Amino acid sequence: MVTRSALETSVLSRIRPQAEERVHIHTVAGMLIDSVNRSGSATGMIVGSVARDTWIHGDRDLDIFMLFPPDLPREELETEGLALARRVAESGGGTYREKYAEHPYINATIDGLDVDIVPCYAVPDAAAIRSAVDRTPFHTRYIKDRIRTLIDDVLLLKQFAKNGGIYGSDQMTEGFSGYLCELLVLHYGGFIPLLIAASDWWPGVLIDSSDHRTKTFHEPLIVVDPVDPGRNVSASVSLTRMCEFIELCRGYLERPGKGFFFLPTPHVESNEKAGMLVEKRKTTIYTLTFPTPPYIEEIVVPQLRKSLDAISALLARHEFVVNRAACCMHTDRCMLLFELLTGSLPPVTRHFGPPLWARENARQFSGKYIRGMEEGRLFSGPYIENGIYVVELERRYSTAGDLLASPDLLEVGLGRHVKAEIREALSVKCGLDCMEREFATFITTFLEKTSPLTQIRQQENRD
Known about the structure:
Layout: H1 6-15, H2 19-38, E1 43-47, H3 48-52, E2 61-68, H4 74-91, E3 95-100, E4 104-110, E5 113-121, H5 136-144, H6 151-163, H7 178-188, H8 191-198, E6 205-207, E7 221-225, E8 228-232, H9 239-254, H10 271-281, E9 284-291, H11 297-317, E10 322-329, E11 333-340, E12 348-355, H12 359-370, E13 378-385, E14 388-394, H13 400-404, H14 416-424, E15 427-430, H15 440-447, H16 452-462
Parallel strand pairs: 2-5, 6-7
Antiparallel strand pairs: 1-2, 3-4, 4-5, 7-8, 9-11, 9-15, 10-11, 12-14, 13-14
Helix pairs in contact: 1-6, 6-7, 7-8, 8-9, 10-15, 11-14
């Protein structure tokens, strides 16, 4: 018999799905499954947290998989699967759109639910998968057979992770998936045992409940998939998210509180609030916004991060020191955000040439400036300093804004699809002009950056 604290009992009363929710979501699921089965070409299956009864009150996500015979050619799976998914969505009376992962599927809104209708192969075991989604039915069966007595522990962990901002294996979050949460609870035998164990985690910790790993993994957290020995379920978890989880676990065990499960929803901050934060920091904020490339998050987000790094390096080469930078992807627009220690520099900059003992290179360098090839830009030099030729030139870009709006931006290693959108429709803004309502919370959170545990303790102090 599990002993729950009064806090955890109270939390569970708020996060368990209500009876009417269960009836509603299973009614819709049953209708869609029947539609798949009536087609005669595939078998319908509910997967994910609804199938495993590990979903949280208020969640509106439903995953329906359509299992096709494994001898169906891949191209036919895509065309027939997409056609059937459309018909199933239409049978539910919902609106839908095509989405693309490893192969296309349908995302529909049906009776208030966000429904993914996904074709896959009905392979005999996980070793025979032909696409990544073929594993999902095996995940569902594995968890469903084992989780019954630990469902409440999973609910607590999911709410704990959601509230801490570390729930979700998407590219932007780089956190804990629902399946990973379930596996961790199973492995450690409950919510509190997991928190106790995770408080002592270190980068590279290995969890292999089935003791069947077939390869070496190098991610910070390694949880071997019990249905696929060659897969790390926690591959998406970044070192930062792992350490934030460790900190949350330690904090909860030291002093539990409702803030670990329910923090106030961040509100959209005003321009005045952002302005006060910037004024206090005495830094310069720049934003680059552009249309979101028409690709899935798994493609766009890595390109945003690549672009962020490339532009940070460009700024550094021009002596604009980047304190921090971050990216944000919304449905229609993306933002790259840079905080600079200064946004403007004096006109003069030093440029170093070769040492005098590199005779030919030194001759060419000094000759270039003596002949006036940089006429109009040369303040002083060439002169020798510690054996090195030096010239002092007029800086090409005295403000970071001029650099970010220049053609030089397109010459660095931007993500391919990001570069295409930047070339067509880039907006560069500085200071309070950056504070667009769509990105206000993102910018304010960036400026007030704290760890999840710090947010909880600060809220406790305010309460």
